[in-house]
Amino acid sequence: ILNCEAAVSELFVEKEKNQSAKGGLHNRVEKLLEERKEIEQLVRRRRAEEDEIEQKINQLKIELSQLEVKSQDLVERVQEELQIDLVESYENYKDEEIDWDMVREEIVELRGKIERLGNVNVDAIESQENLEKRYSFLSSQVEDLNKSKASLQQLISRLNRKSREKFRETFEEIRVHFQQIFRKLFGGGKADIVLEDAEDILEAGIEIIARPLGKETMSISLLSGGEKALTAIALLFAVFKTKPSPFCFLDEIDAALDEANNERFNLLLREFQKDSQFII
C-alpha cells in the first residue's frame, strides 16, 4: 500500500509538472501570436507612413518644378525687358552707407526712364531672392523626406525578413505534420504542401498535392469528395498540432466520411485528446 501511495504521489507530481509545462507552452504560443500581430500592425503602419511620405515627396517635387519654371521665367523676363542679369546683379550687391539724397534723385530719373520704357517689374530681384530661399527650403525638405523614406524601407525590409523566417519555419513544421497525419488517415500514401512562388513566400499561394494509397499523385482538386474532406482534416490537424490549444470546436467535420475513414478519424482524434479537448 505504501509503495502504491508513493507511486501515486510521484504520478501526481509528474502530472503537476506536465500541466505546468503545458501552461508555459500555451503562454509562449499566445505571446508569439501577439508578437506576430504587433509586427503585422507595425508593418501596416510603416507602409501607410511610407505611402504618405511618398505623396508628400511627389507634391513637393511638383511645387519645386513649378517654382523652377517661375524662377526661370522671371529671370528671362527681366533680362528681356530690362536687360538685367538678376543672378549677376545679386552677386555684386554690397551693403554700404548710401547718400539718400542722391538716391532720391536717381529714383526720379529712373522713374522717368521706366515710364518711357513702359511696364517693368521692379520687384524682380526681390522675387528672385524669395524664390531662391523657397527653392532651398523645398530642396532640404525633399532630402529629409528621402532619408526618412530610406529608413522606413530598411525597417520594412527587416520586418519582412523576420516574417519570412518565421513563416518558413512554421510552414516546414506544418508540412511534416501534414505528411504524417495524411498517412495515418489514408492508411498510407503520400501528401505534401508546396509554395507556388518560392521567391516571395509571404505572397505565395500554397498547392496541396496528395497521393492516396494505390493512386497517382494529383492535385487536391482532382480527388473525390471524401478524399478531399480527409485531406482537409489532415491539414487542419497538422496546423493544430503546430499551434495547439486546450479546446477545439469541430462542426460536422466527419459528415463526408464513410465508416472506414470515420474510424481512422476517431483514432486520430484520440491521439490529440491527450493535450486538447474536442467538442464535435
Automatic annotation (TrEMBL):
InterPro entries to which the protein is assigned, alphabetical: P-loop_NTPase, RecF/RecN/SMC_N
Keywords tagged on the record: Coiled coil
Residue span(s) of domain RecF/RecN/SMC N-terminal: 6-280
Coiled-coil annotated residue ranges, if any: 22-77, 128-165
Pfam families, per the entry: SMC_N
Protein name: RecF/RecN/SMC N-terminal domain-containing protein
